Amino acid sequence: MMKRLRIGLVGCGNWGKNILRDLISLGCEIHVVARSKESKQRAKQYGATKIVSSVGELSMPHGFIVATPSATHADVIDQLIGEYPGIPIYTEKPLAIDLAGAKRLARKAAGTLFVMDKWRYHAGIHALRDIARKKEFGRVLGLKCTRVQWGKPHDDADCIWHMTPHDLAITLEILELIPEPVFARGEIVGEEATGILGVLGSNPWVVITVSCRYPDRKREIRLFCEEAVAVLDDAYGDHISIALSSSLNKKDSPAIISRLISTKMPLKKELEAFVAFLRGGPPPKSSSAEGALIVKRISQLRKLANLD
Q: Is the pTM of this model over 0.85?
């Protein structure tokens, strides 16, 4: 009989409650660290086994998940490493919001610290990845990621720190690398960064557009190959669309191939991967080194855009 895993969930905000819900559905016993009245209410409502006010009150868990505000990730992870050395940690992105902190954590917990890059578990991204790696439509020319909406996701850091990690993780999953940034322009309102346009690499190239000043919410990934353009245009869509370059001479519309994909939520899939790892399986995506690389690329883009 498989042992019941005990997982320490640090934080139970609006996203943390979804993590709690899915972990319980996977048969785990969840001990939640929650400080505010609202967080404690969420933890109770969504079925936490135990609710405590500090990391030090946790019973020895098999693993940790960090779902606190981004600006606190480094401090929380440092505390967990210090008090529970060797226990695997799965943290929400980004690993940290400063490069020095990300590098330090990657060194301290290589092999036991991982980042929850949910888009690396998205079926649509896997479909684009398979097209790229198999060269189904010829060589990959570039990748264009658009992530725009109205309003900041969170108040602890600007939207670039919250939104850009997703698209860099997508780039890593599809291309197996994240090219060096070569150009960036920032969008600023008052003294706060509200978006960035970044170009990375050249062969293949990557263009990333992030903004919290778009009236319309949009999540779109375009993979440009020699013989086609493959598109995921909805995070909750059930297909990708492939426009064939052979139809470029048509004046009205391109020839389109629609390819169905699974609609299983990537959060559940990444949590399944972590639970399997705790039971002796392969490590989940992304490693602490990959998480630190994403922080490095964001820092480089911000510097090119004169945002820091």
A: yes
